[in-house]
Amino acid sequence: MRGLSLIRSRFFLSLYASFTAILLVTSVLVGTFVAKTSVALLRSDQEESMKSFCRLLEPQAREALARGEVGALAGSLAALRESTGVRITLVLPDGKVIEDTHEDPGLMDDHRLRPEVLDSLATDFGVSRRFSRTVRFEMLYVAKALRAEGKLLGHVRVSLPLRIAREELAEVRSSVLIGTGLGFLLALVLGVFLARRFTIPLAEVTTVAKDLSAGRLESRVRMHRSDEIGVLAQSLDQLADEVTSRIAAMSQEDAKLRAMLSGMIEAVFAVDEQDRIAFCNQAARDDFFPGKGLVEGERLWEVAPIAALDELLEAARSGRGDTRAEIEVHRDGRERTLVVHAGAFLGGGRRGVVVVSHDITELRKLERIRRDFVANVSHELKTPLAAIKGFVETLLTGALHDDDNNERFLRRIDVNVERLNHLVSDLLELARVESKEQGFAAADVPWADVVDEVARRNEEILARKGLALRRDVDPSHAVRGDRESMVRILENLIDNAAKYTAEGHVSVRTRLDGDACVLEVSDTGIGIPGRDLPRVFERFYRVDKARSSDVEGTGLGLSIVRNLVRKLNGDVRVESEVGVGSTFSVELPAAR
Predict the structure, then answer these.
(1) Using an 8 Å Cβ cutoff, are 559 and 535 in contact?
(2) Cβ proximity of 267 and 284 under 8 Å
(3) Residue 4 clears pLDDT 60, i.e. is over it
(4) Which CATH number fits domain 439-592: 1.20.1290.10, 3.30.565.10, 3.30.110.40, 3.20.20.140?
(5) Are strands 87-91 and 97-100 parallel, antiparallel or unpaired?
(6) Alpha carbons 70 and 77: distance in angstroms, whole number
(7) Binning pLDDT at 50, 70 and 90, where does residue 507 land?
(8) Residues with Cβ < 8 Å from 557, sequence gap 6 or more?
(9) Which of 284, 39, 293 is nearest to 171 (CA)?
C-alpha cells in the first residue's frame, strides 16, 4: 500500500523524474566524455606502439640501408609481419620503395610525397591516417627518417589497418556504454530509496496536516530526525498541540457561553450581515420561532416575519436612535408583549446584530390588574360611602325627626356600612392569602366534613333563594391540606353559585383523578361567556356588569379561591355555558 501511495505521490514522481533526468543527462555526458577520452587514449596508444615499433626497427634498417643490403632484412621483416600483423615498408630518399612486407615493391608508387614521409623529415615521426590504394582499406601510418652522419638514408614506415583499431575502439565504446548503463540503472534503484527518504516523511507530514484541517486534532507525525524535514515535523506537532490546546479552551468557553445563553430566561439570538441566524437559545425559539425546528442558517425574515423586529435591526446596524422596542407577538392563541434590545457587533471581520428580548406580558398584565384593582376598589368604596353620605345629609337636614323615614334611612346606612365591612374583610383576607409568610399546617382532611360544615352555614341563604344543595361526596375522599382554607374555598364557590343562580340547584361532588382529589361545584345559573372565562378569577371582575349589577358582593371571592388553591399546591378550573350553568373544579393532592 505504501508503494502504491508513493506511485501516486506527485512529489515523489516529480522528485524521481527530476533525479532521472539529471542522472540521464549526466550519464550521457560522462559516457560521451569517457568514450571520447578512451578513443583518444587508444589512438594515442596505437600511435605510440607504432612509434616504438619504428624505434625497434631503426638500428637494423639504418645499417641495412647504409650497406645497401636491404635483402638481408626480408626474412626478419616477414617474421615480424607474421607475429604482429604490422605492415613494414622501407623507402629510399627519392621515394622508391625497396622493401614491403605485404606488397611487391616494384609495383608500388613513389612514396616521397606521402604525408607521413614528409612529416618525418621535419619531426622525429610522421603520422597519417588514410585509405591505402595498395591494400584497398584505411591504414594508420607511422614513418621515421633514417640518417647517418647527417645524411638521409631513407625511411622506415610501419602501418596497421584501421579495421583492427576500429574493433578495439568498438570494444572500448561497448565497455563504456555497458558501464554507463549499469551505473545508470544502479543510480535509478538508489534514487528510489533516496526519494523515499524524502517523500515518505513529507507524505506523513502532509497526511497529518490534512487530518488537522479536517478536525482530527489527535493526529501527530512523531518523527525523530535532525534534518529540515524533522524540524518541519516537530514544528507541525508543536503547532497541532498549540491549536488543540487553544481549540479546547475556546470550546470550553463556547460551551460555557452557550450553556449560559441556553439557560437564560431572556430570548437571545444573533444574525449576520445577510440576516441569517447564527445562534439562538431555547427562549428565542419559543418567542420568535415556535415550531420551526433548527433555524440556524435561515434568514430571519423568513422564519419570523415581524416588521418591528426588522426596523429594530436596521436601527442597530446604522447606529441611529434607540435600539429598544416593545413588540407584540401572537403565540399559542394569545398576545404577548416583548421588550427587545438589539446591538451591533463585529467578530472575525464580519458584522452582525445580537438581539435580547424579555417577555413582559405578565408585567403588563399585572399593571392592568393593578389599575383595575385601584379603579374597582375606588368604585366599591365610593358607592356605599356616597349612599351613607346621602342618607346622613338627609337625616341632618330634618329627616332625623321624620318618624316615617328616619329608621329606613338608618337601615340603609347600616346595609352600606356592612357592605364596606365585607369589602375590607375580603381585602384583608386576600392580602393574607397572597402573603408569602403565611403557611398552612398540612393534614389529611376529608371533603365530606368540609361539605357538611359549609352546607350548615349556607342552608338559610340557599333556602331563601329556593335552591337545593345536592351532594355526592364519598367519605373516603380526603386531601392533604388545611381545613380552614378548604372551608373558605367551598364557601366562596357555593356563595358565587347562589348569587348567579335564580332557580334550580347547586351540586357538590368529589372524585379521584390519579394522585389528586377533585371537588366540583356546579350550578344551573346564568353561565359565563367564553371570552370572560380566563378573567373570572381576577379581583373585582364581574361578568356582564349590566346583568349582575343587582348582585351583592365584593368581586373578590373567586380571587381568594384561586390563591388559596395555589397555596395548597392545587389547581382550579371553570367550565361554563351561557344559560346552562357553570362548574368549578378544585384539584388538590389526595391524602396518602
Answers:
(1) no
(2) yes
(3) no
(4) 3.30.565.10
(5) antiparallel
(6) 11
(7) very high
(8) 426, 492, 495, 496
(9) 39
State the Cα–Cα distance between residues 321 and 341, nearest whole angstrom.
12
pLDDT of residue 511: 92
Phi and psi angles of residue 404, each rounded to the nearest 5 degrees, phi first? -80, -25
Beta strand 334-347 with 443-446: parallel, antiparallel or unpaired?
A: unpaired
Among 299, 301, 269, residue whose Cα is nearest residue 283: 269
pLDDT of the residue at 585? 93
List pLDDT tens digits, range 395-415: 788 777 777 777 777 878 887
Residue 373: all three cell numbers together: 384593582
Cell numbers describing residue 193: 530509496
CA 279 from chain centre, in angstroms, equals 14
Give the residue among 494, 541, 537 at the shortest CA–CA distance from 380. Answer: 541
- Residues in CB range of 365: below 8 A, 6 or more apart: none
Terminal Cα distance for the chain, rounded: 74
Q: Which of 542, 538, 562 is nearest to 551 (CA)?
A: 542
How far apart CA 396 and CA 400 sit, in angstroms, is: 6
CATH class in words for 1-218: alpha beta
pTM over 0.70: no
The whole-angstrom separation of Cα 207 and Cα 246 is 22
Q: Extract the C-alpha cell encoding 282.
A: 431555547
In what side-by-side order are the strands of the sheet with 125-131?
97-100, 87-91, 151-161, 138-148, 125-131
Sequence-ordered list of residues with C-beta below 8 angstroms from that of 574, at least 6 positions apart, any chain: 528, 533, 536, 537, 582, 583, 584, 585
Task: Give 10's contacts (C-beta < 8 A, 6+ positions apart).
Answer: none
Q: Which of 191-200, 204-213, 511-520 has the lowest mean pLDDT?
A: 191-200
- Contact of 186 with 193, CB cutoff 8 Å: no
Contact 525, 497 (CB under 8 A): yes
Query: What is Dmax (Cα atoms) for the chain?
Result: 207
Q: What is the pLDDT of residues 536-564, one digit of tens each?
A: 887 766 665 544 444 555 567 788 888 88
Asked if 270 and 354 count as a contact pair (C-beta separation under 8 A), the reply is yes
For residues 243 and 462, what is the distance between their CA atoms, to the nearest angstrom? 82
Q: Which three cell numbers stand for residue 454?
A: 359549609
Q: Which three cell numbers stand for residue 14?
A: 516529480
Q: Please give the CATH architecture assigned to the domain spanning 264-359.
A: 2-Layer Sandwich (3.30)
Give the closest residue to 61 by CA, choosing from 80, 45, 85. Answer: 80
Query: Is the backbone of residue 84 left (phi > 0), alpha (psi -120 to 50) or beta?
Result: alpha
Distinct helix (H) and strand (E) counts, the chain? 15, 17
Instruction: Give the β-pairing of 87-91 and 277-280.
Output: unpaired
**CB–CB of 119/106 below 8 Å?**
no
